[in-house]
Design goal:
Blueprint lengths: L1 H11 L5 E3 L9 H9 L16 E5 L9 E7 L2 E11 L4 E9 L8 H12 L4 E4 L8 H8 L7 E2 L15
Parallel strand pairs: 1-2, 5-6, 6-7
Antiparallel strand pairs: 2-3, 3-4, 4-5
Length: about 170
């Protein structure tokens, strides 16, 4: 158990080693995972669906959120963490939403590592969130926002990211 916890924590140290993909295949279903667990010797492992690195940056896949991406961490074949984000190059502002560590991967430093990696990938960008922070998440946001331009405070997205926000005179 301690070895696995150490391995998960070391995953956070690899956050800058990201595999960037333009398109992402559908996620494996629960039936696929059950088959792999129940019949490991006969399960045909599709390597094309497995990320080549533990950290992946892929399109969010929301038709209503064009341009949004997901930074995700995988531990073995499990999705351990993901956060949605978008960056406006013109305004030099980025927004992150819904950082989530899955059960068994919480408090391992994955969220902090992912946000730090995004800041390194997009230098000079102010970082915000689109919504407010849940009360139980406030200590996390206070910790990760120290000294960060924008401080992950709430801010509406610009009209470059969401064109329907253009104000009419």
């Amino acid at each position: 158990m301690a070895e696995e916890a150490t391995a998960i924590r070391s995953l956070a140290q690899l956050a800058d080693h990201v595999h960037w993909v333009r398109e992402w295949p559908d996620k494996p279903t629960w039936r696929d995972r059950l088959r792999r667990w129940a019949y490991p010797e006969s399960y045909r492992f599709d390597r094309s669906a497995t990320p080549p690195m533990p950290w992946v940056d892929r399109p969010a896949g929301h038709y209503e959120r064009s341009g949004w991406r997901i930074r995700a961490a995988y531990f073995r074949s499990d999705l351990a963490f993901e956060v949605e984000y978008v960056v406006c190059d013109l305004c030099e502002i980025g927004w992150v939403e819904s950082p989530h560590s899955y059960e068994g991967y919480k408090r391992c430093g994955l969220a902090s590592a992912a946000l730090r990696s995004l800041r390194r990938a997009y230098p000079g960008v102010q970082w915000h969130t689109g919504g407010g922070h849940f009360r139980e998440a406030e200590p996390f946001w206070s910790f990760v926002s120290a000294g960060i331009p924008g401080g992950y405070t709430q801010r509406e997205r610009c009209h470059h990211v969401e064109p329907w926000r253009v104000r009419r005179a």
